[in-house]
Design a protein that fits this description.
Number of strands: 8
Mean pLDDT: 79
Helix content: 40-55%
Radius of gyration: 24 Å
Order of helices and strands: EEEEHEEHEHHEH
Number of helices: 5
Oligomer: single chain
Strand content: 5-15%
CATH superfamily of the largest domain: Aspartate Aminotransferase, domain 1
Strand order of the largest sheet: 5-6-8-7
Distance between the termini: 88 Å
Largest sheet: 4 strands, antiparallel
Structural class: alpha+beta
CATH class of the largest domain: Alpha Beta
């Protein structure tokens, strides 16, 4: 009988063995389809455990980036970040300035190379204001301008800076236009 060495995986620049991740080492003849299946299972288990650990650190990083984005968005007079005071997904934000038209904001962000969506996720693809925001007590003047932005695993601080710069440029233009039309 031969004791087989558990599979190893690189995690954060270090080599981590399946055994160190709480995966039992296999023993057996070391040859044949059964031992290959066991090694494959051990490797999959080790990879899953490593991925779960990375998921938590990614969530913390994304939440930090999202919070930084939202602080910058709130610097715009009248800006609203929906549900900013409750626990929620770390990678998504929904925001507006009352009177802003979401379709116009989406086009403006797109011209700056930033992908956003209008409305809440439940109203994606619909032109009318979100029924969710309406149920939360927001009127059509506010809900019609809701813009949703999602961060991803590759989002960086530089991306947040670029997004905020596009937001400032967009709101400067659109809010001046809005004030002119309501004056």
């Amino acid at each position: 009988m031969r004791i087989m060495r558990p599979p190893q995986q690189v995690q954060g620049g270090k080599t981590v063995s399946a055994g160190s991740l709480g995966v039992a080492a296999s023993s057996g003849g070391g040859a044949g389809p059964r031992s290959s299946r066991i090694r494959a299972r051990l490797a999959a288990r080790a990879a899953a455990k490593a991925a779960m650990g990375a998921r938590e650190s990614d969530a913390i990083r994304l939440e930090s980036l999202r919070n930084r984005l939202e602080r910058g968005l709130r610097e715009t007079t009248g800006a609203i970040v929906f549900s900013g005071d409750v626990r929620r997904l770390p990678n998504t934000t929904l925001f507006t300035v009352p009177g802003l038209k979401a379709e116009t904001a989406v086009i403006g962000f797109d011209l700056e190379g930033i992908a956003v969506s209008s409305g809440s996720a439940c109203s994606s693809g619909k032109v009318q204001p979100s029924h969710v925001l309406k149920a939360m007590g927001y009127g059509p003047n506010t809900a019609q301008g809701a813009v949703r932005l999602s961060l991803g695993w590759s989002t960086s601080e530089a991306d947040i800076d670029r997004c905020l710069e596009a937001w400032r440029k967009l709101t400067d233009t659109l809010l001046k236009e809005l004030r002119r039309n309501t004056a």
